Amino acid sequence: MQPSKNNHNVAHAVTKIEILSFFLANPHTRDTLKGFSLRLFMDFEIVAEVMEELVGIGIVERSGKNKPVYRLKTSYANLEDYLT
C-alpha cells in the first residue's frame, strides 16, 4: 500500500526541518545523500527530494557527479541569519 499524498507531504516537511536544523548546528558538514539519510535516520528518497529543493533555492550546494556531496552554501554559513 502506497503512503498517502498527505503522509508524503508531512514526511517531506519534517525532513526539510531536520536537514535545516542539522545545518544550523553543523554548518560546515559535507556529505552524500546516503550519509545525510543515515545521520538523520530519514528516508533516502525524501532526503534526496528535499536536498534538490534546497539546492534549487540556493541554500545547499551539490558538488561531484558520481557520488555528489552536499553542503550548506557558503553565503548561508550562518543559517540563523537566513531564517530570521
CATH homologous superfamily identity? Winged helix-like DNA-binding domain superfamily/Winged helix DNA-binding domain
Largest sheet: 3 strands, antiparallel
Helical fraction equals: 55-70%
CATH topology: Arc Repressor Mutant, subunit A
Unreliable residue stretches: none
Q: From the structure provided, what is the oligomeric state, counting identical versus distinct chains?
A: single chain
Work out the count of structural domains: 1
Order of helices and strands: HEHHEEH
Task: Give the helix tally.
Answer: 4
Query: What is the level-2 CATH architecture name?
Result: Orthogonal Bundle
What's the end-to-end separation, in Å? 40 Å
In the CATH scheme, the class would be Mainly Alpha
Write down how many β-strands occur, each being a DSSP E stretch of 2 or more residues: 3
Query: What overall form do the CA principal axes indicate?
Result: globular
